[in-house]
Amino acid sequence: MPRTRSPLTPANKSPTSLAQKLAQIGLRNDWDFALHLPIRYEDETRITRVRDAVAGVDCQVEVEIFHTEVTFRPRRQLVVQTRDGDDVLYLRFLNFYGSQVKQLTPGSRLRLFGEVRPGFFGVEMVHPRYRLVALDESVPEALTPVYGTTAGVSQTAIRRVIDRALETLSVQRQFDDSVSASMRSALRLEPFGESVFALHRPSPSASLSSLAERTHPAWRRIKFDELLSQQLAMKKARAARDAKSAPVMKPRNEISKSMLALLPFALTDAQRRAAAEISADLAKTHPMQRLLQGDVGSGKTVVAALAAAQAIENGFQVAMMAPTEILAEQHYRKLSELLKPIGVIVTWLTGSLKAKQKREAIAAIGDGTTQLAIGTHALFQDGVNFANLGLAIIDEQHRFGVGQRLALREKASMVEEAHQLMMSATPIPRTLSMSYFADLDVSIIDELPPGRTPISTRLLADSRRDELLERIRAACSAGGQAYWVCPLIEESEKLQLQTAVDTFERIATEFPDLRVGLVHGRMKPTEKNEVMQKFIANEIQLLVATTVIEVGVDVPNASIMVIEHAERMGLSQLHQLRGRVGRGAKQSACVLLYQSPLGALAKARLKVIYESTDGFEIARQDLLLRGPGEHLGARQSGAPLLRFADIERDVDLLDAARDTATWMLENDVTNADKHLARWLGSRQHYLKA
Fold first, then answer.
1. Residue 257 in 3-state DSSP?
2. Mean pLDDT over each residue of the chain, to the nearest integer
3. I need a surface site. Which of 87, 215, 564, 609 has the fewest CB within 10 A?
4. Which of 426, 443, 436 is nearest to 230 (CA)?
5. pLDDT value at 639 more than 50
6. pLDDT tens digits, 456-477
């Protein structure tokens, strides 16, 4: 496929400011513009008489100006009086320029688009879109597309650039189809080029509802092509990885057997199954890329420890990276308890270490003394070199950007690539796994260890806060511990949310007999860790916190979780926070404090979290309510988010795209490459992580 240039600079001597603005939203070459499809349409193919306009419905009218003036009551505004036959229509502009006053002179004809509605003087339009027209000027033959744009780029400008790109691609005959006619027929798909033009320039007879709801046949084809590009990229990424070599780590059961003997519990069947799948991958000659997912408290850390043991007993180093120091330190503490008694050298490396400690940790990692390095993003910083990295374990993988994950894996030798195990406590729905994680192997821990007490979830209006505080005081005085989670750490007038700092001060003042602690994201790591250690040691009874404690904190004695303004949080976050309790023998409760009135989305979220403790069902509902961004860490995950297809609504197209991608890579590589270049261009490298 010929390289496409920017449609903005064919005759220009230098890049324009328009080009720079459009590049900020990812529009750089002809295919970027051709696939920048409308977000909605306006019908300018017909003129509506003013008397026939329906209130609340945008329409196009044509009028003649007979009076223009700037008035100052009740505020400065431009009022233009126009006629459509015997009907008068007032135009009001609250923000205007002097040039508009000169332009909108009596005798001029205007074509207006907007809503006609009752006004103080009569029917009016406020700030309509308008243009000067000649008498009997023809109307457009197609619906008018409205595109997503950016500040300083008008619809007229972006339409002009898109039209130029479409023309260039047509002249170069680049709209040839990457999907064969027989396959299109079998899948009931429209031709690609016709679909693109049908969406950019839909005919007046096209159904506005089918275009808006993306059920039009042209939308079906575009959504299929987008899913196909994603599947092709994922499968190619997997094939490229499988072609690379990785250290072979056969299970020797030396360290792992000793470690299992130290555990005070037996592994669940799900843990054993996941561990076996990972063990088999580590023994292969190509790099493992496996996602270990399991609900909150399902025991992923022990499974990761078994994987680390297998790498270490084969003579390789292991790096384990977590997104926060609290979580990283918890992993360090747990794995040190398991592995240090067996003789494994475990090193801790984070940004908050003192200079001397950091130098010693980096030296031990570099000379191979360290067998397991645990830490935060400090593990992949410049200056940190592993002697023999064989396995990288990344916890809460969606919290790291693609560049960060690649940087850690590239700490391995140039000859072989490190195996990679990613962990997530956010269960991933089937459709999301089929789409965004198609290049990964997935192990699922779908059962909780025995002895975990069920968590009771309760909804409570904010008006009952004082009553709740008294109950928590009583529970803490009886030897229990509790979390009180607030979403912000300082006052926000916009959201009017109670802050963690205010809550801490109020509770500490009202209940001087309680030992109350505070932890939030803006504290220094050493301060946060000191507070958490006191909470773990029961020196703090009630911990007021932000969502910094969402992941990984394990305090078995804490049996109450209060979440303020639960209506503001996503399902995944609520489920993660709830999972901080229920880790001991005590009956645990999660109280969701909400503030009325509740919006429809907030009601739906609270209903789901109240009715279900199944992480996979919650994740499925989360996907339906919020889309895939939260599961993927938004765009930083590296997998391009879908712009057009909906993986729940379009699951039939997703299935078809998977099968088609497999067939094309085996039988039609030329068209597969053409399809990828058209849809992803240079973005394919993101799929390495």
1. helix
2. 85
3. 215
4. 436
5. no
6. 999 999 999 889 999 999 999 9
Q: What percent of the chain has pLDDT over 90?
A: 48
The per-residue pLDDT for 551 is 55
Q: How do residues 328-363 score in pLDDT, each as one tens digit?
A: 888 898 899 889 999 999 999 988 888 899 999 999
Of 152, 196, 158, nearest in space to 174 by CA: 196
SS3 content of the chain, % helix, strand, coil (to 5): 45, 20, 40
- Residue 332 contacts residue 282 (beta carbons within 8 Å): no
Assign 668 to helix, strand or coil: coil
**Which H or E run contains 290?**
strand 289-294
What span, in angstroms and rounded, lies between the C-alpha atoms of 308 and 51?
76
Residue 366 carries which side chain, given as an amino acid letter?
Answer: G
What is the three-state SS of 75-91? CCEEEEEEEECCEEEEE
Are 64 and 109 a contacting pair, CB within 8 Å?
yes
CA distance 179 to 442: 30
Distance CA 147, CA 12 (A): 24
Length of the chain counted residue by residue? 689
- Burial label for 273, CB within 10 Å (0-12, 13-18, 19+), is middle
- Position 634 pLDDT exceeds 60: no
H-assigned helices in 579-647: 600-611, 615-626, 629-632
Distance of CA 25 to the CA centre of its chain: 17
Enter the pTM of the model: 0.70
The Cα-based distances of 414 to 140, 156, 387, 670 in angstroms read 60, 51, 12, 31
Tell me the C-alpha distance between 483 and 665, whole Å.
Answer: 52
Secondary structure of residue 395 in the 3-state scheme: strand
Yes or no: say if 177 and 193 are a contact pair by the CB < 8 Å rule. Answer: yes
Kindly report the three-state secondary structure assignment for every residue of 311-334.
Answer: HHCCCCEEEEECCCHHHHHHHHHH
Q: Which of 349, 41, 341 is closest to 208 using CA atoms?
A: 41
Name the residue with tokens 């109280």.
Answer: 591
Name the pLDDT band for 180 (thresholds 50, 70, 90): very high
Decide which of 177 and 424 is more confident. Answer: 177
Q: CA–CA distance from 646 to each of 11, 22, 689 (Å)?
A: 39, 25, 23
Identify which of 420, 343, 407 has the alpha carbon closest to the alpha carbon of residue 381.
Answer: 407
pLDDT of residue 14: 45
